[in-house]
Q: What sequence folds into this?
């Protein structure tokens, strides 16, 4: 009888261990790149901006920063701050925007410190290599009985 109980206990232990091993997968499977890889200056390639109202596209624009009239860059600093730089060639003006940032998994959280309210955006990084960075933002809201959906995407190179 002891041998039977021992075998049953052993089998149960093996089954429970197999559940533990299977459930201990990589917690960062959505992880893209790393905080260290993000640090530095990234030069804009393009910015995509799309909007739908009740399922119908009402805006689809793409700003080209390589062949276009404007330039855009962002520098992510080691201390958790960032500086965005917009250069408008047609008017010879440059605007700077400042904030703080954090990165975890594939989520890039940016807080605009120039805004009194500390406007926060959480971007999803879809690609990060030594030379390329792409992040996007999707939002959906209901306003005045209409459903508005927004999609933005930034692409950069170093």
A:
């Amino acid at each position: 009888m002891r041998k039977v109980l021992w075998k049953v206990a052993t089998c149960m232990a093996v089954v429970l261990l197999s559940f533990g091993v299977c459930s201990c997968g990589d917690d960062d499977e959505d992880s893209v790149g790393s905080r260290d890889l993000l640090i530095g200056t990234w030069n804009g390639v393009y910015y995509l901006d799309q909007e739908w109202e009740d399922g119908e596209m009402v805006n689809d624009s793409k700003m080209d920063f390589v062949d276009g009239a404007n330039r855009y860059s962002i520098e992510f600093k080691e201390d958790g701050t960032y500086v965005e730089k917009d250069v408008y060639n047609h008017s010879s003006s440059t605007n700077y925007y400042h904030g703080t940032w954090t990165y975890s998994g594939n989520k890039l959280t940016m807080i605009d410190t120039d805004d009194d309210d500390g406007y926060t955006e959480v971007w999803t990084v879809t690609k990060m290599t030594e030379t390329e960075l792409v992040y996007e933002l999707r939002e959906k809201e209901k306003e005045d009985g209409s459903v508005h959906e927004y999609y933005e995407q930034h692409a950069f190179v170093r």
About this structure: The beta strands are 40-53, 56-64, 70-76, 81-88, 93-104, 107-112, 120-128, 132-143, 146-157. The first strand starts at residue 40 and ends at 53. Residues 2-23 form the longest helix (22 residues).
